[in-house]
Amino acid sequence: MEVASPDTARSSRDQIAMVDEGRRPSSVGKAKRNDSNPWRRLNRGPSKRTSWNRSLSIRGRESIIFVGCLDLRTKPKQRGGRKKLKQKKAPEQLYDFSKEKAYFEEVDAFELLEESPSPNRFTWKMGTDYECIEHDLSAILGRWRRSKLFLGRCMAWPLSKIMETIPAPSGYTTSVGSFNHGVAYSLSQIRETSSFELSESKSNSATQKSTREPHSEVASNFSFDPRGVSSRSVNKSLIGDLRADSVLSSFSALSIKQKATTTDKCEGEIALSENKACKVVEAGGMKNLVTLPRESCDGESLAAFEQLLMVCKQSSPIKLSEVFLNYCDASSIIKLGEGTYGEAFRAGETVCKVVPIDGDLVVNGEVQKKSEEVLEEVLLSLTLNSLREQHKNSEKLNSCGSFIETKDFRVCQGLYDTNLIRAWEDWDAKNNSENDHPCAFPEDQRYIVFVLADGGKDLENFVLLNFNEARSLLVQVTAALAVAEVACEFEHRDLHWGNILLRRGGATMVDFTLEGKKKSVSTFGLSVSIIDFTLSRISTGEAVLFLNLSSDPELFKGPKWNIQFETYRRMKEVTGECWEESFPKTNVLWLMYLVDILDKKKIYERSIKDERNLRSFKRRLHNFESAKDTLSDPFLSELLDD
Ligand SMILES: Nc1ncnc2c1ncn2[C@@H]1O[C@H](COP(=O)(O)OP(=O)(O)OP(=O)(O)O)[C@@H](O)[C@H]1O
């Protein structure tokens, strides 16, 4: 039982609400600890966040880039019951890498400092409500897309093709046909000479490299089931004129694990180095493990990290304190809330969400996000921001202002700032944080800071006054989802009550444009902001960004009685686990969840008739396939002005 605290314009009587304690991984951190919750007690472990509430870092954001008929996604793992994906054909022809080569040369030659003025020299663009920094979404997207394309194409090759790209010493040929045990090839890159050496090893347990140049580093390890393999010649030259080291640096720039099929019908996995080591590769019942030297790892996140720096217009990471000083006095910083990944602090009129990235330290029971995942989240946020920009331009077909505005991003490095620690501890004393103390971060810890507009208080902790507010909330959320659905096939996929922020005192009407039609919603003084796009799916027009939720089975194992977990399970049914495809019905599922929350978990002034209307709306929701469809329901459309 939780006594909800009064909000600015709350009614005179105290409102008491039962609080739903079972929550999805990422929202656990938003909840106050409640020892009466049996689920929590069951899972109390040494770490504050427990295994069931682990979430996204083990999944990793994925993306598909549209290139003609090429599908450059990483293939999802096949599991029992999963719908087969429509596989687009891998390119039959060898790809012409000249453009990508030119791009990487351009990147190599790129002088960050030129494009990265110091933070003090930013040009500020005055928005209607607050200042924000201009981001060139298409340039960022283009840069990201080119690098993904390059990597995707390299990885789209069948294993046999990759083998053919390995220039062996003249006349070097190997036959693998007669082996009846595991075979692993280690591809060694000798930087000094820009040439390669293929080393072969045969072992039942672990790969042993038979030859290794003193200056070489293992860039990747191929392993496959040798059964059925006849023989293979590897003395082929590289494709086109692409330099071999470019191919390898692209391999090491992202950690990708992908099935590859040789022309000899044997299957195997290409495992690329991920921090410190190549993955364990299992094929044909064999396990092969290759440990990489440290140097090969640092390059791995470089491409994404450099792009992040570019997005932030930085030449190098800055200190956390430098970011906050842009917005407020250090002493005025207060912590507002926490999630599995981020700590949200108020800094003046903005909210800075600090997310540790790229480190080895497990934080809040989670592996830290990688630069490449963050980069895609940045792209997603900017795409949603563009709906706001369009909002200012009345000519646009689809626009709305209900997704939280991301004003800026910053890459930081160093110890957690003392003022942030003070704010963290103050919050902990009052709210009993579920997150790890930030003192644990090492000196070289990197962070991404999302500078956001202040959206107010989350629905879980906000006290609604009356049915009009509840209804307006539903209309505003549905309208925002409908606009984003139509504009960029957006699905939030995690719209629990911690991710809807509310504040009072705004305009009496909010406007949006849907398919060229301008509409307004009565707010009854309440304005809604939707946050946290970590699980969201979006199509930027050139790529689909999504998260393979099936990589984290825990997400679907929450208690049966919990509507939030039921919603994840329903999403799984609706999508058939094809998370990359568009299923606007998932937005409707979250609207059903919201109606349930407003019906069962929130207390506010409402009549019996209001309750009946809300429940019959919920029943009708089953018939809708998208938020856009839902908007036509009279329960919502009565609050809309054309
Ligand atoms: N723009 C904002 N304005 C006000 N409060 C915010 C804002 N962004 C985040 N918060 C607060 O911080 C909390 C955590 O934010 P958020 O959900 O984005 O973090 P997260 O780590 O991504 O969460 P998750 O665990 O869901 O992945 C929110 O529930 C909210 O209380």
Automatic annotation (TrEMBL):
Matching InterPro entries: GSG2_C, Kinase-like_dom_sf, Prot_kinase_dom
Pfam families for this protein: Haspin_kinase
EC numbers: 2.7.11.1
Keyword Kinase: yes
Keyword set includes Membrane: no
Protein kinase domain mapped to chain residues: 330-642
GO molecular function, one term: histone kinase activity
Keywords: ATP-binding, Chromosome, Cytoplasm, Kinase, Nucleotide-binding, Serine/threonine-protein kinase, Transferase
Cellular localization per UniProt: Chromosome; Cytoplasm
Region Disordered, annotated ranges: 1-53, 198-222
Catalyzed chemical reaction(s): L-threonyl-[protein] + ATP = O-phospho-L-threonyl-[protein] + ADP + H(+); L-seryl-[protein] + ATP = O-phospho-L-seryl-[protein] + ADP + H(+)
SMART domains with a match to the protein in the record: DUF3635 (SM01331)
GO cellular component, one term: cytoplasm
Protein's recorded name: non-specific serine/threonine protein kinase
Highest classification ranks of the organism: Eukaryota, Viridiplantae, Streptophyta, Embryophyta, Tracheophyta
